[in-house]
Design goal:
This protein has about 250 residues and is an alpha/beta fold. The chain is about 45% helix and about 15% strand. Bound molecules: NADP nicotinamide-adenine-dinucleotide phosphate.
């Protein structure tokens, strides 16, 4: 990204963008920001009340009407996602952007004491659901003139770190999936695929990960939005298979 990137106000006009984990944290701010720049945002999350509040905020601001998809990525089935694909196909006919944002932290303990069920749950939300959504939404992304898939990773995804457990491993696996896909789709599609590491950001996940930290010392989700817009919009159409650190 060019430093100081400034998105045009209508950068995402008429684009259909799905954001996972849209109800809170970075996903909430990204959804609102994409809507402000003209996108119709499909808000996917597990807490319906949060999605409804965001829906009202987007409508109240006069931005394009979003869609709401209540889905728990810890328990969703392939059939649930297939149903979502059909709904998007019927209503919008294509998908122009997919922001994989939802994730859970899980427990951070020495590997030899990690809980087996918790490990599986983190892998399910942070990796398996990302795989399933990408696999089943790909035909709709291929119908876009220019589509973007953003995989949200972490510093401990690029380089696994002691005691970060399944969170670190799930992000490492997700980065592998992103790179494989970027390689396959290069020159064969209009889809570009990149990895975004937001870095330490003022959200509830960060507060849970580093409880003693003063949140006021951290950047906010709003501070990240230049990069989120750049990677979602047409200005980054030639970027593929890269990692962007906020
Ligand atoms: N914040 C940081 O410092 C930081 C640093 C590096 C990477 N990241 C990454 O950035 C992304 C966003 O993190 P964040 O800090 O914004 O986290 P957050 O504030 O905890 O928000 C996470 C969002 O994901 C949703 N979610 C969690 N489990 C879900 C499930 N099973 N099904 C559907 N939605 C689910 C949450 O829904 P509910 O609101 O219903 O719980 C919430 O909306 C994550 O991928 C994270 O790994 C964050």
């Amino acid at each position: 990204m060019i430093k100081g990137y400034k998105a045009k106000p209508d950068l995402l006009r008429d684009r259909i963008i799905l954001v996972t984990g849209a109800g809170d944290g970075i996903g909430r701010t990204a959804s609102l920001t994409y809507a402000r720049h003209g996108a119709t945002v499909i808000l996917l999350g597990r807490t319906v009340a949060k999605l409804e509040t965001l829906y009202d905020e987007i409508i109240g601001a006069g931005f394009p009407e979003p869609g709401i998809v209540p889905m728990d990525l810890a328990t969703d089935s392939a059939a649930d996602i297939q149903e979502l694909v059909e709904v998007i196909s019927d209503k919008y006919g294509r998908l122009d952007g997919l922001l994989h944002n939802a994730a859970i932290l899980g427990e951070r303990v020495p590997f030899e004491t990690c809980d087996l069920d918790q490990w599986s749950r983190v892998m399910q939300v942070n990796f398996n659901s990302v795989f399933k959504l990408t696999r089943l939404l790909l035909p709709l992304l291929k119908l876009s003139a220019s589509a973007s898939i953003i995989f949200t990773s972490s510093g401990v995804g690029a380089k696994p770190r002691a005691y970060w457990g399944a969170y670190s491993v799930s992000k490492y696996a997700m980065e592998g999936l992103a790179k494989l896909l970027a390689d396959e789709l290069e020159n064969t599609s209009n889809i570009h695929v990149n990895i975004l590491n937001p870095g330490a950001t003022r959200t509830s996940m960060r507060a849970a990960a580093v409880p003693g930290e003063d949140p006021q010392t951290l950047k906010t989700p709003e501070d990240l939005m230049g990069l989120y817009l750049y990677l979602m919009g047409p200005d980054s159409a030639t970027e593929n298979g890269k990692t962007f650190n906020a």
